[in-house]
Amino acid sequence: MTLTDNIATDDSARSIIDGPALWPAQAHTPSVLGRQLVIDRGVGSYVFTTDGQKLFDGTAGLWHANIGHAHPELAQVAFDQMRRLETYHIFARFTNDKALALGERLAALSPIQRSKVILNSGGADSIDVACKLARRHWQREGRATKKMILSREFAYHGLHAFGTSIAGLQFNRDGYGTESLVPDTARFPLHDADAIVAMVAEIGADNIAAIVTEPVQGTGGVNPPTPGYLEAVEKICRDNDILLILDEVITGFGRTGTMFAAERYGVTPDLLTFAKGVTSGYAPLGGVLVSPHIWEPFYVDSPDTPIFRHGATYAGHATASAVALANLDILERDGLVERVTELEVVLRNALDGLNARQGEVIDVRVGGLLGGITLSENLSAESIADDLIDLGYISRPLRGNSLQISPPFIVSDDELKGYIDAIETAITDRVNR
Ligand code: PMP
Question: InterPro entries attached here (predicted)?
């Protein structure tokens, strides 16, 4: 089937590209239909299209496949769990053994002492929960004016209602209402703690519930924090009774070389959101780690104790939880978080080499096995990503004419160097065209 096979003409003579029934996500449909890469198989750091093309997965899908693709151990765990019990909900008196076990495991790994763990199905879910809980916290404290959620320019926090409203990428906010979907949000500039101080003074700490930030900004172009930045944000939060929500959906579970980026960058949030790496994408699962000062009032032994009115059928999904536990076993057994620290050095050296290409590469950034490359205006990151596909490599264009580098943790040094070499080749080929 070719693109033109799908073109129908309606009464107004505007052609409609019909295409498959599945509506592609985050896509300008006419640009992608007819040229979609249909992935149907994976092995380790590689995926295969239905046409048989083998691609090095330099982005680990959407930053999720940290242990690599199609791991047989996780498949076995999912199979066994589904044969025993697919899931049972965790509402009121009910719970299930796998969700409970995952809660214990995550609390033990958490950078927050004595965490409670809320489980759900993904990153955007977790942001919704964290923002709701932040507002609920202040309302319960009798400080109901503290509702505002501040986030950062270029931030990505998923695309549910809260994530859309606090998005720092303007195109993700547009079109859902004049101000935003959820009222009472505001954005501050990238890496500028003084601007946050000014914003807090202007809005008033009495109106602010939380600051949400990615430790290393991902979709905004891979922007690791400048030295001292996250500590400064944490201090602003502490000084003003503002909750700090760290969005570790990308960075959680080893991507920056520590289990959580909170450890690497020396900050302790009040709420920490996670998803992707908790299961390496083998099951949809995410959640929130919650500090004692937030959860304790909901655990007081009294008839007057409030309820946090949140939950979902798949919160604490047993199969997803079993898969997460097995994924964490593999991360630990195979020393993959430590391996990220080694790979970061390889990545940094390779990207420094690329950065030496004056004129074509504007900037490179690294924070763990997580890199960004900003290309000059005369090169388009989108075109380079397309060319890379032809060379057998996946990257992804991000904001600011940047390319995403986030392969699985299981890559060899040579595979990682080969990937950056391929990017260099793609750049050279474009320049010489
Ligand atoms: N937060 C961050 C930092 C993310 O990168 C993402 C997804 N890329 C999300 C939240 C949303 O996660 P999900 O796509 O699972 O809803």
Answer: Aminotrans_3, Aminotrans_3_PPA_site, PyrdxlP-dep_Trfase, PyrdxlP-dep_Trfase_major, PyrdxlP-dep_Trfase_small
